[in-house]
Amino acid sequence: MESIWIQVKGELQSQLPENIFRMWIDPLDPGQVTEQEIILHCPNLFFLNWIKEKYIPLISETIARFQPHPPQLTLQLSNHRPFPAEVPRTHQYILPGLERREPGRFQGGFTFDQFVTGPSNHFAYLASLALASEQNIYNNALYLYSANGLGKTHLSQAVGRHLLTRRPQAKVLYLSAEEFTQEMVVSLKSNRMENFKEKYRKNCDFLLLEEIHFLSGKETTQAELGYTLDTLLNDNKKIIFTSSFLPKDLSRIGGKLKSQFSAALLGGIEPPDFETRLGIVEKKSALLGLDLELQVKEYLADQPLTDIRQLENCLTSMKAQVMLLNQPLDLELAECLVQQHLPAQREITIPDIKNLVGRYFKITPEEMISKSRRRTHLYPRNLSIYLSKKFTNQTCEAIGQAFNRDYSSIIHAVNAVEKSLKKNNEVSRQINYLT
Q1: What's the pLDDT at 69?
Q2: Distance, first Cα to last Cα, the chain
Q3: What's the pLDDT tens digit per position in 76-102?
Q4: Could you tell me if 294 and 425 lie in one domain?
Q5: Which of 303, 322, 341 is the last residue of a domain?
Q6: 214 within some domain
Q7: pTM of the predicted model, to two decimals?
């Protein structure tokens, strides 16, 4: 009967994209196959729930093609893989021959099953899960980038938790680039660099390094990290980087290190759309035990956000108001808390846009309004003009005065950016990031 599952897998492999098959179907282990029942073992609870939600109908339909009377399909956790809650916390961060990491470094809610996916983050989520499951479907390094508060740290910590659930004795190092730098400085001053190198090069299976843009200008730390990454990748270890910037946009980072970052799989996270924000509200309110009316959920999800934590803080405060003051869970309470937690929507001005774009492209205010036609000046200038036209109420004449340009130049700049938007996804990404 086991040959049935082999046939089913073969059929599924022909139907599904290769990366999807290897990520979700191949790890399924047939624990028992009879005419009455097929039991498939899943490596962890999250994996089991995902298969149940996304692939059970397809698997059942495929089985029916080979069996006139299809057996019952049952999913179980693998016996040799412990249920997440059973993993002793004392296993976490214990590296042989090294000091124990402080417990609780990973935040309790930062798990894969608590991460709400949508178009803005789905690829980053799947890439993180694949790396955490140690599936060799791409380079062993993943680079997550986004603005603050959109889920980089959530995914990075979810990877660490998932790894330690699967392999409690794995040597997982999770820290920020600032902590890496501080530890290296202390090691240099105390003449213990060999211990430092051994820790990060020999006693590390998975390196989760947050906020790598902190390394800007720190040449000695960059050099040491570069050698460390070479060693880890040569030894087939796994690495996650997080940053607020793409590798190519990192300031004062050496060419070698920037190249190593660029070689990683890039997983961008954009601001969530309304449906994703609504999913976040529903997930968080359920965790807090808040029974919100749909009107309240939609109101919260409709707020302009630059940071998911703002939304979560609103819900946490709502829980406190209900518990301590016995206030009703209504729209009035939601509106009051939104005013407290979300920044007031200040009118956007042309100087705001010029400063934002100037910082992003690293050009001065003088260069922004100069007569220079160099692309490094012209493109940011045109983009600033386009954003000024789109996000302010200023006339073309007023915008022209702000950029030292005449009316026709403003129209030309706006048209140039709009034309680029239709042809170049990078322009669209930059505008989404800046706005």
Answers
A1: 80
A2: 57
A3: 887 543 333 333 333 333 333 333 333
A4: no
A5: 341
A6: yes
A7: 0.60
> How big is the CA angle at 155 (ends 91 and 136), to the nearest 5 degrees?
80
What gap in Å lies between CA 352 and CA 394, rounded to an integer?
13
310 occurs within a structural domain = yes
Same domain, 216 and 298: no
> What is the CATH classification number for the domain harbouring 248?
3.40.50.300
- Its domain, for residue 406, covers 350-434
Helix/strand/coil (H/E/C) assignment for every residue in the chain: CHHHHHHHHHHHHHHCCHHHHHHHHCCCEEEEECCCEEEEEECCHHHHHHHHHHCHHHHHHHHHHHCCCCCEEEEEECCCCCCHHHCCHHHCCCCCCCCCCCCCCCCCCCCHHHCCCCCCCHHHHHHHHHHHCCCCCCCCEEEEECCCCCCHHHHHHHHHHHHHHHCCCCCEEEEEHHHHHHHHHHHHHCCCHHHHHHHHHHCCCEEEEECHHHHCCCHHHHHHHHHHHHHHHHCCCEEEEEECCCHHHCCCCCHHHHHHHHHCEEEECCCCCHHHHHHHHHHHHHHHCCCCCHHHHHHHHCCCCCCHHHHHHHHHHHHHHHHHHCCCCCHHHHHHHHHHHCCCCCCCCHHHHHHHHHHHHCCCHHHHCCCCCCHHHHHHHHHHHHHHHHHCCCCHHHHHHHCCCCHHHHHHHHHHHHHHHHHCHHHHHHHHHHC
Report the pLDDT value the prediction gives residue 98, as an integer from 0 to 100. 33
Examine the pLDDT at 209 and tell me if it is beyond 80: yes
Q: Are residues 115 and 251 in the same domain?
A: yes
Q: Please check whether residues 48 and 155 belong to one and the same domain.
A: no
157, 109 contact by CB (below 8 A): no
The side-by-side arrangement of strands in the sheet containing 206-210 is 172-176, 206-210, 238-243, 141-145, 265-268
Task: Give how many domains the chain has, as a whole number.
Answer: 4
Question: Does one domain contain both 218 and 132?
Answer: yes
pLDDT tens digits, 94-126: 333 333 333 346 777 899 999 999 888 999 999
pLDDT of residue 42: 83
Give pLDDT tens digits for 383-416: 999 999 888 878 888 899 999 999 889 988 998 8
* 103 and 53, same domain (yes or no): no
Q: Is the residue at 67 inside a domain?
A: yes
Do both 333 and 419 map to the same domain?
A: no
101 and 234 housed in the same domain? yes
CA 349 to chain centre: 31
Pairing label, strands 72-77, 37-42: parallel
